[in-house]
Specification:
The structure is a single chain. By secondary structure, this protein is an alpha/beta fold. The chain has 20 helices and 13 strands. The protein has a 6-stranded parallel β-sheet with strand order 3-2-1-4-5-6, sandwiched between helices. Strands 7, 8, 9 and 10 form a 4-stranded antiparallel β-sheet that branches. It is globular and about 55 Å long.
Length: about 450
């Protein structure tokens, strides 16, 4: 099989390739095509992959190109992990939002809206090209905001685009580990939108173990989300939220921590990765070793501001190994080989959550086979979660409408309606600020 990776010069591509190196079964990926608009980054990542493949006799062949059409032709799977505007754009998203006193995180609040506005047009162009050049290909979308971008691409690709995220997988794994269960044998009852979901149960052999966790303060304090949200709040919810809900439940504290930080997350990653890519130009340096060291630092500092604000401490060692590459590989295997499995994915609602329409992309457990991903039936969300999910989905729809129409008024509405933006006046200033720093948003009028 041929896998095309869009954003192929991205820092996390070696995670995907490393997962492929461990797959020796029939029907595996034998060729990887990397695409990126930055040839220097492609060369750097190609060096890392070459070192990863050393000594592996059947390692997938790797080629790279800056030509999108060339990359897509003949693809069986397309993994989309692009970053429109790069990390400099992410840092700008954070800076403009924080100047207005609101959250600038890349997928949540004002920062997520800005990122979505400039990403949707590019993602839809990619989707149209896939439909034309590789109509039988399956697209696995990891580009953030993952749910919003997946919904945009589905307009052109239908069910052949599926969104993935490692957050629900990591959350389910941590809960299972705390409860002494094997994550491979547990059913995680998870439902919501991307970066806006809740674990409402963890079932092993038909028995829900989550009530035991919620009843035990010591267990709740022994894993990341328990420390991040606090035992009392988790018991009040009767569920364990995705870590990104910290930005909603503790917004004032999160914004304060971001404003006090020496560097925003985007600025930190921009500087860190600049050092990595520059370092790979030295032929005497092991690109793989340099990548490993940089990745360890990246993972250890993930959501550092929120953990500091909550007093949650350092990340656990078991959570520093990523996870989205495993989800991507499992998804490809299930479709290509009909190896039926269950994964938490971003897919069209199709009646799964009654408050949302059929085409709204949600994040829920899905049964996956050769025909794609099929969301399973879930219990209704409680009222507080319904309100938040519906409000954020309405914002996503405004982002899609603004991206497609170029309407400044719709962009203002997207910002103003978000629960974490507290004023229409702030929304207008945000649009002004983002159009000033992002050439890709100059079309808003």
């Amino acid at each position: 099989m041929r896998l095309t990776i869009l954003g192929g010069g991205g820092f996390r591509v070696p995670l995907v390739y490393g997962a492929l190196l461990g797959d020796h079964a029939e029907g595996r990926v034998t060729r990887v095509v990397l695409h990126d608009v930055d040839a220097a980054r492609l060369r750097a990542i190609a060096r890392v992959l070459a070192e990863q493949a050393a000594g592996v006799p059947d390692a997938p062949e790797v080629t790279w190109t800056t030509g999108l059409d060339e990359a897509l032709r003949g693809a069986d799977f397309v993994f989309s992990a692009i970053r429109v505007g790069g990390l400099e754009g992410r840092a700008d998203d954070e800076r403009v939002a924080l100047a207005e006193g609101v959250l600038g995180q890349e997928t949540v609040g004002a920062g997520g809206i800005a990122y979505g506005l400039r990403t949707v047009p590019v993602a839809e162009d990619i989707a149209r090209r896939v439909a034309r050049l590789a109509p039988d290909a399956w697209v696995i979308n990891f580009t953030n905001p993952a749910g919003l971008v997946t919904e945009a691409m589905a307009r052109h690709l239908g069910d052949r685009v599926i969104g993935i995220c490692d957050s629900p997988v990591g959350l389910g794994r941590r809960i299972a580990r705390v409860l002494g269960a094997d994550p491979r044998e547990a059913w995680t009852d998870y439902v919501g939108l991307n970066h806006l979901g809740w674990v409402r149960g963890l079932r092993v052999a038909g028995r829900d173990l989550l009530p035991r966790l919620l009843a035990d303060p010591a267990l709740l304090g022994s894993f990341e989300e328990g420390r991040l949200f606090g035992a009392d709040w988790l018991r009040s919810l009767g569920a364990v939220p995705n870590e990104y809900l910290h930005y909603y439940y503790f917004n004032r504290e999160a914004v304060g921590a971001y404003r006090q930080a020496e560097l925003t997350r985007g600025a930190f990653l921009h500087d860190q990765q600049a050092r990595f890519y520059a370092g790979t130009r030295d032929p005497e340096v092991s690109a793989l070793d340099l990548w490993d060291r940089t990745r360890a630092e990246r993972e250890a500092t993930y959501m550092a501001e929120s953990r500091e604000a909550a007093g949650a401490g350092e990340r656990e060692a078991d959570d520093l190994s990523g996870g989205y590459e495993k989800v991507a590989l499992a998804l490809m295997r299930a479709i290509a080989r009909d190896e039926r499995t269950t994964l938490i994915l971003n897919v069209p609602n199709r009646g799964t959550l009654s408050p949302l329409d059929a085409e709204a992309v949600i994040e829920v457990p899905c049964l996956v086979d050769a025909n794609g991903a099929h969301p399973v039936a879930v219990d209704p969300l409680p009222g507080h979660a319904v309100g938040l999910v519906c409000a954020v989905k309405a914002v996503e729809r405004e982002v899609l409408a603004a991206s497609r129409s170029g309407s400044r008024a719709k962009a203002v509405r997207a910002f103003a309606l978000h629960p974490l933006v507290d004023s229409v006046s702030v929304a207008r200033r945000l649009v002004d600020g983002y159009t000033a720093v992002h050439p890709g948003l100059a079309h808003l009028r």
